[in-house]
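Hi team,

Filling in the usual template for the complex we talked about on Friday. All components are listed, including any nucleic acid strands or ligand strings, so the model treats them as one assembly.

SUBMITTER: L.P.
PURPOSE: interface mapping
COMPONENTS: two
RESIDUES: 418
SEQUENCES:
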Amino acid sequence: MSVSTVKEVTKGFWEKNPVLVLALGLCPSLAVTTSVRNALGMGVSTIFVLTLSNVIIALIKGIVPSQIRIPCYIIVIATLVTIVDLVLAAYFPDISKAIGLFIKLIVVNCIILGRAEAFAAKNTAWRSLLDGIGMGIGFMIALVLIAAVREVLGANKLFGFTVFPGWRPIAVMVLAPGAFLTLGFLLGAKNLRMRT
Amino acid sequence: MSFSVLLLVLVSTIFVNNFVFAKFLGTCPYLGVSKDSQSAMGMGLAVIFVMTMASAVSWAIYHFFLYPGKDNVLYLLLGGDPAQYDLRYLMTLAFILVIAALVQFVEMVIQKVSPALYAALGIYLPLITTNCAVLAVAILNIEGMSIFGVRVGHGYPGSLLFALANGFGGGVGFALALLLMAGIRERLALGNVPKPLQGMPIAFITAALLAIAFMGFIGMVK
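RESULT (copied from the run log):
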């Protein structure tokens, strides 16, 4: 693999991270990060939808008239999301029960439509595939990071195992305010790092 | 469905289960359009309007086309067993298309009927298609909820009324959150915020404090 191919994948990990740098897809990154398990479920679902939608849109971009391209993209994305939703409900009912609404809402996740419009509509299917994988993994990294902070501080657990025996967790971190607080301080930390 | 249940649905969606603070829906527009109270007001009104309309339309699509009941249009036209017209798995696809079309339609109608209203709401309407709160309210209307042991939602009595109340209340809750935030951020613009926290980070921390305040409503509606 050439250097530019690797770059296409890794740019989404940190320097163009969809959540932490581009501030896209905030709703799911706040809502599903109560535990690392849910965050991984959401991350994998998003990688699947983002990669396939990028490839399909890059393939059909020549045939779709530009005036109706957005509705066409939405149909492609919604179809993929329905597949993920049904598969999760069948094989991982507990994850589906916890984050099911937000799996359906991948349709309106701005990352997916944003990459379709900004990248897949202008590039080849192969490059779009790499971009989709990279951006998807970047999204999952951000989700797992937020979820790990919240799960350790809020429930004193990681993947269901106790982290600090005998320490009483800060319950508010797994509730709604903890999500906003964690993301706020993570963004602040990122600014501090990028400035120096 | 009794009037008191309807009232409780409103209280629940506006305060207790506020879309922004308790359900994390519509966070992108919430942080994007809350910089001044003028545009917050415009966006808030546009969301109330679109969410109420979307609730009614998505309920009708689900009830008459997707749900295999005795009101299913295909069943009424072709007869046979209603169960064979079960299209519920198309819910996400159908709803997002209906919402996108509805927002376009509403925009055109407002532009034609009331230029003054269009000047106030116009630029916010296209943004609403990607507001996940609108798609979420359509799905939640179908899934329903339980108010003091009374089940409401699709398949229970008064489901259309519940959908309308849920959509309207959700919109009002979003607008309330947006206006509160805009008021705080206007003050905050003059405050002395540490450099790394300026912009987005402090907005999130403010939202966290507001969410803690809204946690005070938990328990009002069960």
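MY TAKE: Chain B touches chain A at residues 21-28, 31, 89-93, 96-97, 100, 129-132, 135-136, 139-140, 143, 194-198, 200-205, 207-209, 211-212, 214-215 (CB under 8 Å). Chain B has a mean pLDDT of 87.

Thanks, L.
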